[in-house]
Amino acid sequence: MTLQLGVLISGTGTNLGAILDAIASAKLDAKVRVVISNRPDARGLERAKKSGIPTLVLDHRAAASREDFDRSLVQSLKAHGAEWIALAGFMRVLTSTFLDAFPGRVVNIHPSLLPAFRGVDAQKQAHDYGVRVAGCTVHFVIPEVDAGAIIVQRAVAIGEHESLESLRSRILVEEHIAFIDALRLISLEQVQLVQSTDGSTQVRFLSPSEPGR
Which of 8, 71, 194, 207 could disulfide-link to 90, CB 3.0 to 4.6 Å? Predict the structure, then answer.
C-alpha cells in the first residue's frame, strides 16, 4: 500500500530528507502529505518546501495545554490526508489525544538501541556510560516514552577513543537506513501489531504470502 504520511519535525529534517529521497528513487511506496514543525526555524521545512510538500508551523508554546496542541496537530494532519505519522526528530512527547487519533500508525526514530538510553540525548547517554555498541531504533509510539514495539534496529560499534560528535554522525547515517526499512515493511504490510500474554504489544513480521496481511 502507498503510505499517506504526515511527517513531524523539530530541527534539521535529515530523516525527512531520507524519506523524500527514498520516495523519489522508488525505494519507498509513500506520499508525504504534509510536514509539520513545532519550531518556525526548523531547517527541515525548507527541504519540504523545495520538494513541493505543504508545510505548517504549530508552535507548542501558543497552546493552552499538551492536549490542545495535540488536537491541533491531529486536525491539521487529517485535513491534509495523512494516515500514518512519522516522527522524524520531533522533540515533543505526544499524549493519548494524538495517539488515539492514529491508533498503531505512529512511528518514531530514536538514536539508541532501545530499551537502553531512553529520552533526550541518547547518544550522549550511551557515550558517557561507556557502552561498546550503540545504534538506533524505529518503533511504534505509545504514551510511555520510547517504549513502543520495535520494528527495526541498527547497531554502531563505538571506538575506544571515539568522540561524541563522531558517534552522533555515525548513528545518524544508520537512522536514515533504519527509518526507510521500517516504513517499507509497513507499506508492504509485513508488520503487524499483536498483543502478548502479558498485555504488552509486539511486532509480528509477516512474509509477503502469509495469510492475514
Answer: 8
Q: Which grid coordinates are listed for 35?
A: 510536514
pLDDT the model gives residue 94: 96
Fold of 108-188: Rossmann fold (3.40.50)
Pick the CATH number of 1-103 from 3.40.50.170, 3.30.720.120, 3.40.1190.20, 3.30.70.270: 3.40.50.170
Mean model confidence pLDDT for the chain: 94
Q: Is residue 212 over pLDDT 70?
A: no
The question of whether 161 is a catalytic residue gets the answer no
Question: Would you call 193 helix, strand, or coil by DSSP?
Answer: strand
Task: Select which of 110, 127, 139, 176 is catalytic.
Answer: 110
**Among the listed ranges 32-36, 78-82, 207-211, which one has the minimum average pLDDT value?**
207-211
Quick one: which of 128, 106, 107 has its CA closest to 117?
Answer: 128
